[in-house]
Amino acid sequence: MLLFFRHGITPTANKLYQLVRKGSMSAPAEALTKFWETLREKSRIRIEHPDLPEPLREAAGEMVGALWQRAQAVAQEALVQLREEARAQVLAAEVLERVNLHRKDEHPVKRSPKPQNRLGVNPLSAE
Fold first, then answer.
1. At the N or C end, where does the chain have fewer CB atoms within 10 A?
2. Could you tell me if 65 and 45 are in contact, meaning their C-beta atoms sit under 8 angstroms apart?
3. Residue among 59, 33, 35 at smallest CA distance from 46
4. Residue 16's closest CA among 3, 28, 31?
5. 43-68 pLDDT, tens per residue?
C-alpha cells in the first residue's frame, strides 16, 4: 500500500498482481478490500463527548474530516507550486552555469600582474 501513500498511485488488484506475480488474482482483491476497510475506519473521525447527542457528534466528525481534507488539498497545491519554482530555479542555475562555461572558453582568464607598492616591491612576497 506504499503505492497509495508514498506515490499517490491508487492500488488495483491488477497492479498488485503485476507487482507480486504470485498466487491467484483473488489474493490482491482480498488485500485491497481489507486495505480500504481499514483506511475508511481509521480515517473516520469520532468526537467522543458524552454530552453531545449522536447526530451532533457525527456532524462534528464529518466537519473535522472535511476540514482536514481541504487542508491537505491546499498543502498539496502549495507543494506542487514550490516544486515548480524549485525546478525553474534549477533550470536557471544550469543555464547560467552553461553561459559562464561558454564565456570562459571564449575568453580565457588573463592573469593580473603581481601587486606592487610605490617602490615596485610586491607586498605579498616574503622578500
1. C
2. yes
3. 59
4. 28
5. 666 667 778 788 887 888 888 888 88
Cα(54)–Cα(59) distance, integer angstroms: 9
- pTM over 0.90? The answer is no
The three state secondary structure string of the chain is CHHHHHHCCCCCHHHHHHHHCCCCCHHHHHHHHHHHHHHHHHHCCCCCCCCCCHHHHHHHHHHHHHHHHHHHHHHHHHHHHHHHHHHHHHHHHHHHHHHHHHHHHHCCCCCCCCCCCCCCCCCCCCC
Could you tell me which of 31, 6, 5 has the C-alpha nearest to residue 16? 31
Q: Which amino acid is at 9?
A: I
CA dist 62 and 26 (Å) reads 33
Alpha carbon separation from 95 to 85, 99, 103, 104 (Å, rounded): 15, 6, 12, 14
Looking from the CA of 92 toward its CB, the CA atoms found within 13 Å total 6
